[in-house]
Amino acid sequence: MNENERPLILVAEDDDSNFKLIKAIAGKKCNLMWARTGKEILDLYKQHRGEARLILMDIKMPEMTGLEATKAIREMDKEVPIAMQTAYAFARDREIALEAGANEVLVKPITIGVLRAAISRYIPEVAW
Questions:
Q1: Which of 70, 104, 120, 121 shows the greatest Cβ crowding within 10 Å of its Cβ?
Q2: How far apart are CA 16 and CA 27, in angstroms?
Q3: What CA–CA distance (Å, rounded) separates 43 from 124?
């Protein structure tokens, strides 16, 4: 699969080391575009609306939270899969993320297996 054929994942993550981990896990199979704030992910989504196959959305980000960004994306698009990432593992945090429009919630720290499984659920042609 050449770079032009790889699926696009938009990643909203304000922490450099967390993005580097995601890139190390998924970067060989998928094209990644990185936003460091909720506003940036919204802008990236608007630019790549028809191309993005998955959004990995951190809940806690500057300018606009991942919850707010997810709600804004859901007003434009009910279909694009959004996997929220959070360090908060409480059931209520998960419920709030799902109510905002997330398809699922991944608890940090993200592991190779969890991230690969999530990507494969939404982009089945990505083979590990």
A1: 70
A2: 15
A3: 26
Here the tokens at position 60 are 């806690």
Q: Which residue has the tokens 């967390």?
A: 18
3 state SS of 10: strand
Residue type, 55: I
Q: Using one digit for the tens of pLDDT, what is the confidence trace for 11-70? A: 999 999 999 999 999 999 999 999 999 999 999 999 999 999 999 999 999 999 999 999
Measured between alpha carbons, how far apart are the two ends of the chain, in Å? 12
Dig out the tokens for 37 from the structure: 């704030």
Reported residue count of the chain is: 128
